[in-house]
Amino acid sequence: MEGSVTSVISTTLIMCLAFTDRLTFDNEVYNHCIPLYRQRMATSNYQLECPWPNTKYYVQLDDCVKKAITRSFCGEPSLKNDIFLKLHQTYFPLCFFMQDPGLHVLLLLTLPCIIITFLMPFFCVC
């Protein structure tokens, strides 16, 4: 059983490496997907604030890159990662850090646990 799974994975890997069309992938991504994404992001004010919560174009870019991977038969994960890393550095530099919740949220999350911990000895019947 283990040998057949290994052979299927090996066959798939060999097929991907043998039939990958890198030129088709690069052409599709760099001449269609990324210019369309740049055009759409030009309307957002990504230089002033983090556009992440409002950006639906990111999902459309991901779909476009997935289609390019499908058309070129196989895509190396590192290629897709490099593309998205460069785009993140360009369009999402202000989305670097997560913002801490406000004090009232922290109190609402922690106070019940603290109060229950202090009241437990009174509710335990030994």
TrEMBL record:
GO aspect biological process, one term: intracellular protein transport
Membrane-spanning intervals of the chain: 103-125
Keyword Transmembrane: yes
InterPro entries for this protein: RAMP (IPR006985), RAMP_sf (IPR038126)
Topology in membrane: Single-pass type I membrane protein
Family (UniProt): Belongs to the RAMP family.
Identification of the protein by name: Si:ch73-193i22.1
